[in-house]
Amino acid sequence: MNNKGKELRTKIYVYGVLIFLTVLSFIPFYIMIVNYGILMEKIDIWRGFRNSLIIAVPFTILSAYFGALTAYGFAVYNFKYKNFLFGFILATMMIPQQLGLIGYFELNNKLGLLDTYIPLIIPALTNTMTIFFLKQYVEQSLPKSLVEAARIDGAGEFMIFNKISLPIMLPAIATMSIFNFVGSWNNYISPLVLLFTREKYPLPVLISIVRGSAYRTNYGAMYLAIAISVVPILIAFSVLSKYIINGLTIGAVKE
User: Fold this and answer.
1) What backbone phi and psi angles, to 5 degrees, belong to 79?
2) Nearest 5°: phi and psi at 123?
3) Cα–Cα distance list, 57 to 112, 162, 168 (Å)
4) I need a surface site. Which of 60, 82, 187, 255 has the fewest CB within 10 A?
5) What pTM does this model have?
6) Which of 57, 126, 65 is nearest to 93 (CA)?
7) In this predicted model, what pLDDT tens digit does every residue of 48-100 receive, in sequence order?
8) What is the pLDDT of residues 62-73, one digit of tens each?
């Protein structure tokens, strides 16, 4: 009897602690929910959410396709000054983004592209880190005999790339797409310099407005804005990670 009573008291104690910790863990979410109205009074968080998607999604898609296309060209073809050009691409990776921001601003000013999303998306066409990573992957995972066999069968070069090489590169593309999406989504300095209309600001710029405003001491509003900004990153990782897992065995074919 004493053992049963002791066991019951232990269970009550354990469940009591668990219930207390559960309630405690919901407090931050409650604080964010009750501060939703306060946050919307200061900024339109969902407009910023949409603006970030308008920038990040095309940036990720263009980086993936054109980065893969360029990497495929460097890995498969032999042409004059190939090593020099690839070395030049690697050299540009060492130049900080902030160093060329003034010149990039002047260029877009002359082209009439300021206060648009185009200057924030076009750099995806020449994403050097994606090119470098995918080139190494193609050299290790794409058998040249497979490319030659496709040519013998009469397939064109773009068909070989789109139908054969691109599916093999999917794991590496998915990996870089996660980084590219996160980098574009969290990009703060470029939108701040290139965009002037508040209605066009992406989430990182709007969050900085909250942090620097009279609401900076309202941590509930700040945490809510940050929590909303993290959701697409989690979704992108959950969607793209399956391609990484499914492609772990790709490239096992030996020449």
Assistant:
1) -145, 165
2) -55, -15
3) 23, 20, 22
4) 255
5) 0.79
6) 126
7) 889 999 999 999 999 999 999 999 999 998 888 888 999 998 888 888 878 88
8) 999 999 999 999
How far, in Å, CA of 238 to CA of 158, rounded? 30
Provide the token pair at 232: 């697409």
Contact 201, 48 (CB under 8 A): yes
- Please list, in sequence order, all residues whose beta carbon lies within 8 angstroms of the beta carbon of residue 215, skipping any fewer than 6 positions away: 38, 39, 42, 221, 222
Rounded to an integer, what distance in angstroms lies between the CA atom of residue 254 and that of residue 243? 22
Other Cβ atoms less than 10 A from the Cβ of 214: the count is 8
Residue 62, token pair as written in the block: 């263009």
Sign of CA dihedral 148, 152, 153, 157: positive
Contacts of 233 (CB under 8 A, 6+ apart): 181, 182, 185
